[in-house]
Write a structure and sequence with these properties.
This protein is about 20% helix and about 25% strand. By secondary structure, the chain is of the alpha+beta class. α2 packs across α3. The longest helix has 11 residues. The protein starts with 16 loop residues before the first helix and ends in a 6-residue tail after the last helix.
Length: about 350
Amino acid sequence: MAGISLAIGRKFSLSQFWNDVRESEATFFVYVGETARYLLAAPPSPLDKEHKIRCMHGNGLRPDVWAKFQERFGIPEVAEFFTATEGMFSLVSWCRGPYLVNTVGHHGLIMRRLFHNTYVPFKIDSATNNFYRSPTTRLAERVPYEEGGEIMVKVPNEDLFSGYYGAPEATSKKFARDVLRKGDLYYRPGDALRRTSDGRWFFMDRLGDTYRWKSENVSTAEVAEVLGTYPGIHEANVYGVLLPGHDGRAGCTAVSIDPLARKEFDWKAFTKFARRNLPDYAVPIFVRVVQGEIGGMGSHNNKQNKVPLREEGVDPKMKGRRVEGGEEDEMFWIPPQGDAYVKFEGKDWDGIVAGQARL
């Protein structure tokens, strides 16, 4: 970069962020992951729009946060990008109005024609959460852009990807061979995306996060987007958990609730909201109320971390073994034939283990 000034904070601070922005007189700021959600969860201030920011640039801005953040803080432009560190498949959406809200990129007619056989969506195998291969031909199945699937990039050889240092096996896994025809080669970014007929790209889910329940695929990103719009919910981190005697993974969402709303939180209304806005199979059976400050579910770079939550599952005895401070979290569930979330305790888990509760 040349001809511009950069101000770098020592670390991300929810209380100090806007002071840093005002003091530096910044016109752009860079975000990642759930940064915008954490800022939006802070109490409103008369100084919310007292700044010179005209554009925020980054990746991971969630649909349930995007428009709310722009409206509250008066941010006219969002430059959301999609790419991996390796940069084999890159998109950018410079959003200056409602047309590109919630998108991660846009391709015009010429780009769509040029890269029709380069950026290709493939059907995902619901059993393996990998791309589908025909049992007879062992070839993959391309799907329409509007439907979406695992996006892969056709490449002439492996030299275009420099690989992971000292990790040849991990490097090799980024490629798929013999995909549409024998001998072809595709690079795998590891995400599912869809593209509308007019060229707008939308993120669907990270491969490995989607889970299978009731013979249906559940997108964690789509469920979190819906639940995150419910009043009082600051953040919803959705994942699937294993249950004894059940196929697939049951839905669970770890939520951060506004401290002012926790005592009077209406679980029956929340249940109705989830059932009204999600397919039956996608409504999380379990809810984990995360204690502590906003952002407690994030990793070091403000991205949601599902791994320790998924590993602990919903066995009450496991709370806190992988999630720091998690022993204080509360668990809720919708029991069989139940009409609202209620407390989930050790006896309920024992009932699932014993096969007395079928979900």
